[in-house]
Amino acid sequence: MGTTYSVILYGDSRERMEKAANAAFDEVQRLEGLLSTRRGSSAWSEINRLAGQGPVKVAPEVHRLIARCLRYSRRSQGAFDITVGPLMKAWGFFRGGGAPPGREDVAAALARVGYRHIQLNHEARSVRFDIEGMEINPGGIGKGYAVDRMVGILRRRGFDRALVLASSSSIFGVGVPPGEPRGWRVGIGNPRRPRRQVAAEVFLRNMSLSTSGSCVQTVRTGEQAFSHIMDPRTGHPAPGMLQVSVTAPRAIDSEAWAKPFFINGRAWAARNRPGKINAFFCEDGPEEAWGWLA
């Protein structure tokens, strides 16, 4: 999934800890084979090849995950959309740069984007696209889903003190580390100086943190840089935000909501966030505009 996964465990048996960590990493490998669009044999690659021609029957897990993605899309008013891939390609994020696309290129990509064109048949457990040339990508949700699955494995094996990380993108703190009853202390990097300064700290106790930022992946053309966080409704990178970090009881939720919050902004998030979800905003402006939702 293009990232590095890490597990920190506390326990009384090194052998049990190693077995549990290895089982968690095995689960990531399984999900890579199921969801990766870089693997032609994956379930999601098969959907992308065939769903524009007719219904594709999929495994229950894949069907449930796509259904959940569509719920995020509806609740975010279309800001979260797993069909955004054609726009990412048009802007050069899959080829490492180039000139910004023209209006006709953006319009052509937008014609193949839109979660409403994904048709799920729950009885037949199938997926179909209304438009040929569409594709789905788990990049906005896959890491969070993998972290949740890893956490579930560790808990079932009896571990109640752990930190699971998909790099700095999605993190989950299970229980509390020794000597810190507030939870696992995690720093939210300053998007202007990510390796030098911390913008905020959060303590994760049976809680996740996911971060989406405009400074990590960009396409640069001359003096202008464009964020990889795309507004699938306009066809353009979302302006006005440097970074958003979201806390939630599940990593799949914190990762999924980080994108709509980034795209729609702080005021929208304050009105529309689901319960038990909070966010730290780094707006592209004076530093006093940075802070948690009230």
Helix run count: 8
- Sheet with the most strands? 7 strands, antiparallel
What is the CATH class name of the largest domain?
Alpha Beta
CATH homologous superfamily annotation of the largest domain: ApbE-like domains
| Rg result | 19 Å
In N-to-C order, the SSE pattern is EHHEHHHEEHEEEEEEEEEEHHEE
**From the 3D coordinates, which CATH architecture of the largest domain would you assign?**
Roll
CATH topology of the largest domain: T-fold
Strand order of the largest sheet: 1-5-6-9-14-15-16
User: Which of globular, elongated, flat, extended, rod-shaped describes the shape?
Assistant: globular
Helix content: 25-40%
Domain unit count: 2
User: How many strands appear in the DSSP assignment?
Assistant: 16
Q: Which segments are poorly predicted (pLDDT under 50) over 5 or more consecutive residues?
A: none
Structural class: alpha+beta
CA-CA gap between termini: 33 Å
- What share of the residues does DSSP label as strand, in percent? 15-25%
Describe the structure.
There is one protein chain. The chain has 294 residues and is of the alpha+beta class. The chain folds into two domains: 97 residues, Orthogonal Bundle (T-fold), CATH 1.10.3980.10; 153 residues, Roll (T-fold), CATH 3.10.520.10. 33% of the residues lie in helices and 25% in strands. The chain has eight helices and 16 strands. It has a seven-stranded antiparallel β-sheet, with helices on one face. It has a three-stranded antiparallel β-sheet with strand order 2-4-3, covered by helices on one side. A two-stranded antiparallel sheet has the order 7-8. A hairpin with an 8-residue loop joins strand 7 and strand 8. Helix 1 runs antiparallel to helix 6, helix 6 packs antiparallel against helix 7 and helix 7 crosses helix 8. It starts with a strand and ends with a strand.
